[in-house]
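Hi there,

I know you've been waiting on this one. I reran it after we fixed the sequence typo, so this is the corrected version. Both the input and the resulting structure follow.
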Amino acid sequence: MNALCKALVAASVWLAAGAALAAYPDKPIRLVVGFPPGQATDMIARIAAKKLQDALGQPVIVDNKPGAAGIIGSETVAKAAPDGYTLVVGSSGTMAINPSLYSKLPYHPLKDFEPVSILSVVPLFLAVNPTFPARTAAELVQQAKAAPGKINFGSGGSGVTSHLTMELLKHSLGMDLTHVPYKGSPAAVTDLIGGQINTMIDTGPALLPHMRTGKLRILAVASEKRNAAAPDVPTMAEAGLGNFVAPAWVGLAAPKGTPKEIVETLHKALVAHWRDAPDVREQLNGLGAEPAVMAPAEFAKYIQSEIDKWALAVKLSGAKVD
């Protein structure tokens, strides 16, 4: 009798789980973003939330939990129930850079998450103050080599994507630039406009609006092709800086243990309503970004390759956070 009861209980649990999977989603979904409103990851998350909501028929709400280079938001989702109702919109910073930068990171991008798909590739641009004497990227390199350490560059903080990308560029070209870290990208961009710093690398949302008003001059984009939002800006290769490609990116993940069926439901929604949607492409292009989709297994391999790549940048920079 006891064995029969146990079998019946197990069967009822299995049937309930199956029914829950079949009904997913039947309540609102929360997209956690570890950055404040207005930053690139947040802006892309809000576009994705609208498309997922249309595809899945349930409200999809963006929940900003900024702080500690995206760690607070990422840890929140890593510890959430693996039921598909709490997801993280992460970035190359939170999912690829932080594992090498932080010795006590409270999550692992692959051990604690189920990758769903990349959402967007976010090209990075090299900018200078308009009064800076270098008119091209090649001239900037020449001046930096002629005066080692005299030209400075800003970033949103030690170890963030913009900082480490410049470290990779310095390494590839043999430049010696002085790093000036800020508490966030907006402060660095403000000082670049004001002439307190000479140059920096950052995303389109951070830099392109100021290029359009003449407050900044963009010298190159670190991508394989020119960017639709700034078609007159050459690639690094076209600018004579070699085949330097180092895009930032944004992606979607669920807590580890989320059923494969739910991960597939989310992925299929993105395939159908994201990558090839004209309105998505138009909105992202306006930010200097591009939509993208990867299968979950492909995205997991990409994250690992990015962890390996950015580990070198962290080593070159000497940045480390305990």
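Quick highlight: DSSP finds eleven helices and eleven strands in the chain.

Best,
R. S.
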